[in-house]
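Entry 14. Two folds queued back to back today. First construct below, sequence then structure tokens.
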Amino acid sequence: MNTPAWSGRSHGTHFDAALNALAQIHHVSGDPPQVTLYELARIVTEALNIERFSVWCATEDRRAIRLYFLYRRSTGAVSDGSILRKEDFPSYFRAPEGRTITIDDVTTDPVAADLLEPYLAPLGIGALLDAPIYSEGAPSGMVCHEHVGGPRTWSDEERLFAGVVADNISRLLEEFLRQRAEQNLRVYQRELQVLDRLEAMGRMAAGIAHDFRNLLNIVLANAELLGEDDLTPGQRVYVNDIRSAVAHGTNLAQELMHFGRDVAGRPSVQSLRPFLEQVSRLAAPSLGDCSIEIRQEREVSRVLIDRPELERVLLNLLINARDAMGGRGTIRIEVTQASGDRKSTGIGRAVCIAVVDSGIGMDADTRLRVFEPFFTSKPEGTGLGLAVARQIITRAGGTIEVESTPGVGTAMHVFLPVID
């Protein structure tokens, strides 16, 4: 790819020093990639006087980009793991190809329209200067320079500098992509392959469920025609059994129609404490004599996820906890900032939402199969709740894990990558 030559003499010493520093950066074998990127990010954010610098890598199927590295200048904090999918943010992914994507005012530029309300505005980002990165001549990701504050007019020098930064990122990625990026993308790709199979199964199941639900509606309508006054006590029992079975079948049909579907969502930046309090109020009438206790010792980072989808996951986990405890006791929701040292998560800095009960717990076989579609230990369960929950969390770049001991209780851990 031909790129404009950068002439230090024509653009002054301010960028000269930054360019010289960037040219000296090389990945040291054995060092974590973020060590190298941290030094690069520090140089770039100072040279451009910006708050946020991030690198996003394309997934293998090109349907999404995954946050590989995010640096915040004011705090020095780094994070990774969030997902932006093409179907969720089509305007941004359709942005004109070129050396850079320059957005001086995110509130008026159509390229930023999809990102404005769910992502840019909550993070206070007023202007963007993004540059694609390439691998073997093909786009393989994006380097984002994010200005926090109001609009900002990017100069020609700054746009050219951003392109050179992207070239340096491409060079560095060739040096260490096989380390963390490859590992993380491979984990996510495996999850996507599972989701692809589920989607194929879900499309078939949805068609069957649609017809099945129509038949159940006919059965229920006829059952309702049987007047209570015309029935003997024994007949009323049978009619109530019909209604109960139809209700269970309708619930199963509804789950089948949602299972495996890959539809465009509306991921947005979420502050978890107020969200969890709202979910707790929403769930309370369905929890019988169970109460909810939210434990959060300190403020945690925000996450990027579709709000109704996360609500659905947590409601499912709370109902499962209620059932495991026989409808009595205290369900704890514990919120912590995870350091990423849990190898199974495959992500770095994350927020963990744990739903903890003191119920009957699970044996080893149940723990292994708990996310398996149609597997359930409940007499009237569909076996789809946790399968759908896993699908939702995976699409957000996170993971969900189970920890359980028979007779002691269960903790369901939802890990979500931080976005600030």
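Second construct, same run, same settings:
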Amino acid sequence: MSTRRHFMSQSAAAASALAFPLVGGAQPKSIKVGVLHPVTGALAYSGQQCRLGALMAIEDINKAGGIKSMGGAKLEALLGDAQSQPQAGVAEVEKMNEAGVSAVVGAFASAICLATTQAAAKYNLPHVVDVGVADQIVERGLKNTFRFGPGYRKCAETAVANLHVLNSAAGKPAKTVMIVHEESLFGTGTANLLARELPGYGYEVKEVIKHANPTRDFNNIVLRMKAVNPDIVIPANYYNEYALLVRTMQQQKVTPKAIYSVLGGAASSYKFVKEFPDAANGIIDCNHWFNPKDKRSAELKKRVEAQGLFFSYEVFMTYTSMRLLADAIDKAKSADRAAIINALQNSTFSDHIMPYGATQFVNGQNMGAQPLMTQVLKNDIKVIIPRDYREADPLFPLRA
């Protein structure tokens, strides 16, 4: 009995020594963070880009001294693969919870985020959503869910209002629209919002066409487009399908007055511009974009390109989401889940490269988040709207 008591008092003394950071060279415990994305399957490219952003952020945070309020504790990534399937994302959340993560960042696609945030809510596990634009994600009253970027309602409203400004300035050459969208939550939701918003501005939505993921052949859809002959084509799809659709339009010589994307998966992608410069030329997109006037954007872009990779929205959205989480952990002074949720709820984080105001979460949505309008001009991507971030004047319509 006495040996047991002796052992207890020794371990209690050891524990109290550990409570003071760096006493006798003891390092603070690392803080486990789940990094969850679809790195295999149909969405693998985007998922890998997101993971790259998260890991670059963790590297930068740790290099800069870790979580200062916790004695320099380092972030430790637990990587998860959602395999481009919501149920696989849920299984990864279960594993991450078992492994004792303090929070999760992810999971790119709307349908996956809808499932992973719900799964994380069971464990009061804070989940920072990097991209997932479907507004249902933040409209279910989940206290653990915080979306850094804008939702598709905000993006659709911004896009339609700006389209009207551009079209009016040009003397209203565009009157008819065709929407082509992928069939999951993101594409369907975006298309529905657009189809509802556009008539109010006097546009006739001729047709709304959906396609599966993946789709390997857009010939029939483009033949239909030829027959309908819309002034404007609005695509809402992921990278591969977007690129293929626009290339098929080019091959079949379908030239609307404008290709005007809303959250177009390739429209404002340096990869697309490099691989298919002719097809990309002139495309306008309303999407996630960095602040081009912040020097740190250019520095981060250089670092990504030095690895032979592209600086896509997935990279900088997840990079900044991870920094937001680190800022909340620092404010919470704790790896405790409830404390982190509380810090995120009361968060004002403005030390970032996005064209946002300070983050302020209302029901899990960052009220400071906004998309920018970009256009592919001279094989580069330039911000055209709003004026505060403008790098080039818009070219509209593209073809008279």
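Quick look at the second one. The longest helix spans residues 44-63. Residues 293 and 354 are 10 Å apart (CA to CA).
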